[in-house]
Amino acid sequence: MLFYSMTIQKVQSFIGGDEIHPGEYANFMVEIVENLIVKASRQLPSEMKFEHHKIKEWKNYTFHYF
Question: Do 63 and 29 touch, CB atoms closer than 8 A?
Answer without folding.
Answer: yes
